[in-house]
Amino acid sequence: LDNKKIKLIPFYRRKISIPLGRMFKLCKFRQIIRIPPHRFGEDVVKYLERKIGEMFINKVILNYGLCVCVHSIEEIGDSITLPGDGGAHTEVTWNMVVFHPNIGEVLKGEISKCDSTGVSVTMTFFEDIFIPREYLPQPSKFLQNEQIWSWQYEVDDGFAELFLEPGSKVRFRVIDEVFKDIPTQVSDDSQENTNQKCYEIYGAMNDTGLGCISWWNAS
């Protein structure tokens, strides 16, 4: 799939293109989807595209990644009705574009937050990216008052400070990923799962060409 581009199913108002391969994968899914009676007169493919988009886009599927868009409907099976239900229950097979970068892949993003444990990075559509302090350019130190990181870059006459701060455009390498199966239902007296992340990426900036893009453009 490298170097190919696909058109998004128009679940959104405007079509855009996404390069397939590497951080974007094409995955096949199959599920029974109910078509309600008042939708029987509509174009079934368009309805299914819209329904699948509502169900899956911007959601994480365990061990697959973040669903970005519906690529195509591959097969629509026979429909059945159930007692007491006038809807048509139809087995649908479709292809979905998911965000799931490879370990070792280099990505671009923007720093959203810095603290003493490391740097958080966002890619706009995906925000759960973290660079631990030990994987920042070394030697680095955290400036508590400014809430930014400073790389003590060695030069001929000493050291120069290069900063990692919110809003900086950065390049990082994916070193690990964590999927968690988090229950969607949480009891009223427990908020244990509300702050957990079902898919998180860990990265590194401690290599040549990584870190703030402006550092290397300037050089």
TrEMBL record:
**What residues does the RNA polymerase III subunit Rpc25 domain cover?**
105-216
Instruction: Choose one Gene Ontology CC annotation of this protein and give it.
Output: RNA polymerase III complex
Which organism encodes this protein? Trichinella nelsoni
Per UniProt, what is the name of the gene that codes for the protein in this document?
POLR3H
- State the compartments where it is located: Nucleus
User: Is Nucleus given among the entry's keywords?
Assistant: yes
Q: Which Gene Ontology biological process is one annotated for this entry?
A: transcription initiation at RNA polymerase III promoter
Highest taxon above the source species? Eukaryota
Q: Report the protein name in the record.
A: DNA-directed RNA polymerase III subunit RPC8
